[in-house]
Amino acid sequence: MAGPRGHGALCAAWYSAGVLNFPRPRPVTPSVQSATPASLVKPDRPARPSNLAELRELIGREGERLTPRVRTAARYALDHPNEVALNPVATLARTSKVAAATFIRLAQSLGCEGYSDLQRLFREPLQHAGQPSFPERIRHFGGEQTLDNPGDPAQVLRAFSQANMVSLEHLCADADSLPLQAAIELIEQAPLVHVVGLRRSYAVAAYLAYALNRVGCPTVQINGLGGSISEQASIAGAGHLLIAVSFPPYAGDTLQVCQQLSRCGVKRLALTNSILSPIAQGADLVLEVNDAELLGFRSLCAAMSLAQTLAMGVAFSKRGKQSLGVAETFRSGLEDADC
Question: What is the C-alpha R_g of the chain?
């Protein structure tokens, strides 16, 4: 006797050799999702940094992955490390005008359990030194708030001079942490250096191109004369170096050049205010430098000092090798550089 077919076979009994048989139920294979305990699902986030230096490097690498709001929180945290170290998240949210939840998301995005875990990374350096960050020192100085009469040139000069002193002191304090030697080697190794800096950064770029040429380092300035910035940048090739100089608000044409040359195998050295700067994204090396700003006028003292340091470093390296490291020889040999 033939048994029923189709779906009925699963629920109907049939006889075989006088024995009543029932079909065996098919084993249910659990899905991968249901079989995997929640504790074994690894969150898509990096390992927790062990110190503030590693945290800065991680933010530099992961900056593009962060949402705009979280990136704003990261920039504020890097600019105001002492505030993060000493204040609860609610206080930090009020002073930064960034939601407390955003700082918590920032912490979790960087491998920390929460804000308190992130805060521990910022507290550790305070045990060794109490040096405030540049924005913190500028704010303590007062900035524009001390300029009661902008129409008084003498008062403007005093305010600018004091703010510039803060800028230079901060640059001096950070000198050992800046990758200056690596930057000098990048410049030396390039067969041709291209420098771009527009708007407020134009003077720094122009000086750097002039000084590097004077010390024997072939350099061209990308200045966009006649609206030809893309054409000027197109002469750069693989192995060349682009030195990009830009500060907030970042010049759109500078960003365009960075993107254009990143597709051509051109290395990039960024002189900018933060590792989260758009020209720092994808750069081979970043030199952070901050200058004071007063009523919309940005000082160039610290940036110029850094540019001079790079030019002099290249000059000493080149002429020092030629003179077998005799200090007096290459000291006197730099007198004709006229930088």
Answer: 30
